[in-house]
Structures are given as C-alpha cells and as structure tokens.
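Q: Convert this sequence to structure tokens.
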Amino acid sequence: MKCMYYLAPSLPTSSRISEDLRDIGIADWLIHVISKDESGLKEQKLNSSNWLETHDLIRDGFIGANLGFISGVLLAGAVMLFKPFGEETPGVVFFFVIVVATLFGAWVGGLIGMNSDNKKIQRFKKPIDEGQYLFLIYSPKGYGEKVKQMMAERHPEATHVATDNKFINPFARVRRKKAALDKT
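A:
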C-alpha cells in the first residue's frame, strides 16, 4: 500500500478532495490530513492524522532497542569477564541482562520519539505551519493511478509532493517531488 502526500491550500478544498477520494473508492480510514487547524478538520468531518503518523515513537523505539541490545551484549560480556556474581553464574543471567537492556533502550527511545516529529512529515512542516493541509492518502493496490488521475483532473490546486511505498516502515525513504514542494 502506497502513501501519497498531497498539499491542499485550504479547508474547503480539503473537504472536496476527501469527498472525491471517497467517490473513487478510497475508504475514510485511508485518508488522513495533517493541519494546524484541527478544529476545522473536525468541523468538516475530515480524518485527522493519528499520533503514530505525526510522531517518531516507532522509529526511535527501534533505534533505542538496538542501542539497548548492543549495550546489553557489552554488559553481559563484562559480567562474563569480571564475574561479579561468582564463578558459577548461570547462563540465564546473561540472557536477562541483554533482554532488560534491550527493553530499557526501547522504552527510552519510545519516550524520545513521543517528543519528536515524524521524520517523514518533518519536511512538510513549513507549508503546514503556513496553513496548508497535508493529505496522507493510503492507496490500496490498483488505486494509485486512479488517485493521481482524479487529483490531476479535479484538484489541480493540490500538489503531489511525495510518495512513500511503505509508510509503516519508519526507516523507508520518502520519494519527494522537489519541484512540487518548491512551488509551495
């Protein structure tokens, strides 16, 4: 499932885009809008983006878990080398040292991610702050061209700024359309 990013200039345009997307078969739960004007989105009954789309909880949690795992392996190696619990330390101790360090790293990374903007959305912060509306349109297989065609025909004022083949993967690259973003 691809995620297509479109910038719309106004709330009425955003409402019409959402209606037209529903008309071509895109379900409501596949259309999310990021905006400064959250109350306007609710007023127009548009789906606001969810918390995982706007924050880096998953990405930073994975990074923290990896750093925690590496630290846990190093700590388990130090326990094995220095033997602070005696000569007959059971192997399960080393396993739990690694597991606890990994979980702690994931927890700390998640806390950091809760406080930071999603790296994929961050590049669109300026247009959003200027009052534009960023659409995240998750197109099911076979609908990508329908969405692009409909948007080009009915909403030339909306700009296709990027496509993400895997929005779920927090480390995937977003193919940004530089010329389109420079116009905004």
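The domain at 2-53+120-183 is CATH 3.30.70 (Alpha-Beta Plaits).
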